[in-house]
Amino acid sequence: MSKPLILITNDDGIHSPGLRKLIKIANTFGKVVVVAPDGPRSAQSHAITLETPIRCNRIVIDDGKQIEFSCSGTPVDCVKLALNKILDRKPDLCLSGINHGSNSSINVIYSGTVSAATEAAINEIPSIGFSILDYSFNADFLEAEPFINRIITKVLKSKYSNNLCLNVNIPKSISNQLIKGIKVCNQANAKWVEQFEERLDPMGKRYFWLKGDFIVNDSSKNCDENLLKDHYITIVPIKYDMTSYKEIEDIQNIFKNE
Question: Pairing relation of β-strands 56-59 and 67-71?
């Protein structure tokens, strides 16, 4: 059988160490095509480019076997462009990441990394978004690498669903604590409590910096935030259908006379 075709993207940019590591891992599984933003696109969520042209150029960064394209658009643009213009067939798997920073809990809503994976799933391509809880450019992926290999292997073999999308978060490497394993779990009940710091520029005009605190309101042992604190890798299956099915009947009753 021919080797699988794997599409790779991210939101930290094509030069990100997390992306470079994921490319090296994926090269051991099959043919790799990379379409990634030409610079950081964090917190782009599912944004797409409509009013400006998208530029996409083939580049060579290292001596790997992969084919790479640098794209001026968002992470979701990268997936759309790959599927419509670059690839000659539908990929067997889409990988996004490895993101520098958490995409657990509510962060999944804002994540360009996970949205790129979700876009692939919308197009019936199994997908995985990988993130590590380390914002450093020099994040250590060594301990996580065998687990990433196992996750990719199992998804390629499972043939579970073409709409499969997994949000995978990896705890930060700590010298005195090893990763305990992998847990499939649910998204934690948590949110950002935010505020805008107001400042003045040299011209006396106001501008704002967004800042805030991340608050976890979840004591469940099977939520991603608490499992990550316990040093497990978490896998949350996600879907793009945001319908709250359990509320449909109640809302129908509210509007029954309309």
Answer: antiparallel
**Burial of 100 from C-beta contacts in 10 A (0-12 / 13-18 / 19+):** buried
Tens digits of residue pLDDT in 143-162: 999 999 999 999 999 877 77
Tokens of 1: 């059988």
223: left (phi over 0), alpha (psi -120 to 50) or beta: beta
Q: Which residue has the tokens 């379409």?
A: 35
In 3D space, the residue among 143, 122, 164, 8 whose CA is nearest the CA of residue 75 turns out to be 8
Expressed in angstroms, the distance from the first to the final Cα of the chain is 57
Question: Beta strand pairing status for 93-100 and 127-132?
Answer: parallel
Whole-number Å distance between alpha carbons of 134 and 155: 25
Token pair, residue 201, equals 């520029």
pLDDT tier for residue 61 given thresholds of 50, 70 and 90? very high
For the chain, percent of residues with pLDDT exceeding 90: 80
| Portion of the chain with pLDDT greater than 70, in percent | 99
Quick check: helix, strand or coil at residue 80? helix
Written as six digits, the tokens of 237 are 């299956």
The answer to whether the CB of 79 falls within 8 A of the CB of 7 is: yes
